[in-house]
Amino acid sequence: MMDSMIAKVLVSAEEIDELTTRIAAKIDEDYSGRGDKRLVLLGILKGSVVFLGDLMRKLKTPHEIEFMKVSSYGAGTKSTGELKIHLDVTRSDLGDCDIIIVEDIIDSGRTLSHLVRYLKERGAVSVRTCTCLDKPSRREVDFSADYVGREIPDEFVVGYGLDYDEKYRMLPYVGVLAPEAYTGSAE
Ligand code: PRP
Prior knowledge:
single chain; alpha/beta; six-stranded mixed β-sheet; three-stranded antiparallel β-sheet; 4 helices; 24% helix; globular; binds 1-O-pyrophosphono-5-O-phosphono-alpha-D-ribofuranose
């Protein structure tokens, strides 16, 4: 049943199943025969966890998981271009790792462009990026992900890991939040 605060379903559970299957198959194709390098899916907390879990179950390629929690500062703040790291990868063998950063959504592009640079500086063998959703119309820096589930318009979306005020992450689909949900008039 659709949550009463969801105005419409943008990406159904069925479509999510299809896009995760497609991306996992492409990753399997791209990362076969890499010798003894370790494939690491790096989930960016918190939004990516549901997507990451689905990819893990669909990938045939053996892989490991790590997590980071970060926030990027947008243009107009004192720290433009900076990445604030709240939780970092502590392992010291990134020189043996092919990394795929896993995100729920790309908006300005700042988080992923900073993270790719950061992980290369840390010595990762390779760094690719994978996002479930992409809002290209919101880009502030030139960035495109290697694996994209679905481009979406600039609407306020929640579900499948994405939140509003920490709510709605558990919905099995991506929906557009009804305006009442953030104006508070229906609660
Ligand atoms: C979201 C998303 C990305 C980032 C994308 O995280 O998960 O990490 O914003 O935005 P950008 O392309 O403009 O950098 P958020 O800060 O909402 O945290 P959450 O995943 O914990 O909800």
